[in-house]
Amino acid sequence: MKILVDENMPYARELFSRLGEVKAVPGRPLPVSELSDAEALMVRSVTKVNEALLQGHGVKFVGTATAGTDHVDQAWLAQQGIGFSAAPGCNAIAVVEYVFSALLMLAERDGFALRDRTVGIVGVGNVGSRLQARLEALGIRTLLCDPPRKDRGDDGDFQPLETLVREADILTFHTPLYKEGQYKTLHMADEALIASLKPGAILVNACRGPVVDNAALRRRLEAGQALSTVLDVWEPEPDLDVELLKRVDIGTAHIAGYTLEGKARGTTQVFEAYSTFLGQSQQVALDTLLPTPDVVRLAVHGPLNQALLKRLAHLVYDVRRDDALLRHATGRPGEFDKLRKNYAERREWSSLYVLCDDAATAALLQKLGFGAVHHPSH
Ligand SMILES: NC(=O)C1=CN([C@@H]2O[C@H](COP(=O)(O)OP(=O)(O)OC[C@H]3O[C@@H](n4cnc5c(N)ncnc54)[C@H](O)[C@@H]3O)[C@@H](O)[C@H]2O)C=CC1
Ligand SMILES: O=C(O)C(=O)[C@H](O)COP(=O)(O)O
């Protein structure tokens, strides 16, 4: 049995070879000839999975090692009786830590305290809710917008988008891309919304490029609107607007979710789903796969303030590395995908074990996701 896997899926060969013969292939473009004798296809977000790709082939199961599913025509798969699984939440922590890395950098550069800012979170799912929890642990006010959850009657103080636009100093988008329907998110941040943001606001898009109207954003920035912007995703990818990139404060190549943990969880989640589909259910413990990080342990002295948090967060992941790489590469065909394919190992805050001589610091760092322990005499 042949299982096709995207070559940008760590641990895929190791895991899926327990179930069949594995062939790793590029995802964009996917070599269609490889589909003829494949029973299963494991993709990432760059492969459009639909009738045009799969009609006439014998693929029985599709897995995507991603949280987003807008690249997959799930209705067509269901109609054809093809099994499907995504990897919900696999990289949510990575995206949260990307957002923190960016906000801590901007706060230091522009000399403000995050504690004095209100953060509006649009889309309060796996990413948004984890972001909210960490911001609130730091005493930072959040405003939440998630109409589907509000309509479902979920607990939470969900506000209309207009309230967030009016009151938030930082507006960050974490929704799926819906091109139509009641909860349409395509161009949710349109020119009117962007123009209505508070002076000096920060706009973050780490979900899908077309959630923010990129042409409108460029016009607003060219017009001199006082706005800082952090874009991990673009409209379109991989051929982003180079003039827009020049004007954003932080621009990266759709790598917010690219921690090793996040990618490995994506692989293990679709592996587990496929093994269940085959009636051979298997679980994988993530820590048996992951290598030891470069920096394992350190000791900090005294209370946690923003400067110390920034030093710790940036020791694990400094978003400026990815910003510099994208600026350097942009304009050359193929470079966006090459950056993503050759992405250097990046770990999550949990990989860093922090010894603290202050008990409150240890407790707070734990809440924020670091490995941390109170050790009075270190
Ligand atoms: N840049 C990157 O590397 C990554 C990007 N993503 C993108 O971020 C999105 C969010 O990720 P997760 O939190 O894991 O997904 P999720 O599905 O757990 O959460 C999405 C939330 O958005 C809400 N939502 C849907 N329509 C909305 C609307 N019109 N307005 C406000 N909220 C709305 C949903 O109710 C849900 O609570 C994914 O769909 C994916 O497209 C996810 C991971 C990595
Ligand atoms: O999980 C998602 O959704 C994402 O956006 C992924 O981080 C994107 O990574 P690729 O699947 O494009 O490698």
Automatic annotation (TrEMBL):
GO molecular function, one term: protein dimerization activity
Catalysed transformations (reactions): 4-phospho-D-erythronate + NAD(+) = (R)-3-hydroxy-2-oxo-4-phosphooxybutanoate + NADH + H(+)
Residue ranges of every copy of the Erythronate-4-phosphate dehydrogenase dimerisation domain listed in the record: 289-369
Residues bound to NAD(+): D146, T175, D232, G257
Gene3D superfamilies: 3.30.1370.170, NAD(P)-binding Rossmann-like Domain
A UniProt-annotated Pfam family: 2-Hacid_dh_C
Enzyme Commission number: 1.1.1.290
GO cellular-component term (any): cytosol
Residues where substrate binds: S45, T66, Y258
HAMAP family in the record: PdxB
Function, as annotated: Catalyzes the oxidation of erythronate-4-phosphate to 3-hydroxy-2-oxo-4-phosphonooxybutanoate.
Stated family: Belongs to the D-isomer specific 2-hydroxyacid dehydrogenase family. PdxB subfamily.
Protein name according to UniProt: Erythronate-4-phosphate dehydrogenase
Organism from which the protein derives: Jejubacter calystegiae
Gene: pdxB
